[in-house]
Please model this.
Amino acid sequence: MIQSLQGIGMTSPRTRERMINRLMEQGISNNKVLDVIRNTPRHIFMDEALASRAYEDTSLPIGYNQTISRPYIVAKMTELLLESSGRLAKVLEIGTGCGYQTSILAQLVDNVYSVERIAPLQKKAKDRLWDLKLKNVSYKHSDGGWGWPDYAPYDGILVAAAPPEIPEMLLQQLAVGGVMVIPIGNRSGSQQLQRVLRTETGYEVEELESVVFVPFQSGRK
Model:
């Protein structure tokens, strides 16, 4: 790998521990989530020039007008997914991106099915997860709005970009009792993180907090 998994200086274990303390102060309480984030080298998921900023609580560019979400958002969305759904056998991730969120999920659920519309981004993510020996992830280069119906229904769905409304096909691919965590809104206006629970009779939607995500886009590239 270009960058050490262990990290030194601003990517060292001590710097990561400061990030964990900050996440706890921000209300993240799931110890499994905290442990996985503590032990996952976030700095390998970005260009070396930005690695020294990897453990700051900020989103950072990863190319193609995309970003890696700030650690708090990754932790919060993962925690929300886990606390409502019990044991997660199958999770659909919309937006592989650089693969960091994928890597966190892969260490906490049985299987991750990750969809990304930008092929070069997904290729780099696959290589990074392979280096981390995370082999319970399946990848699809596709429009995220279509989901991945071949493996539906999913116990959980996590969406890493903001559509103006919840895509109908993703709702259909959520199992009864399953949970989707998704930002809704547009970049110029307000976005809200929502948690959607599928019940026997429909969907329960809970609005949680304001967020900022890249817009959800259709097509492939």
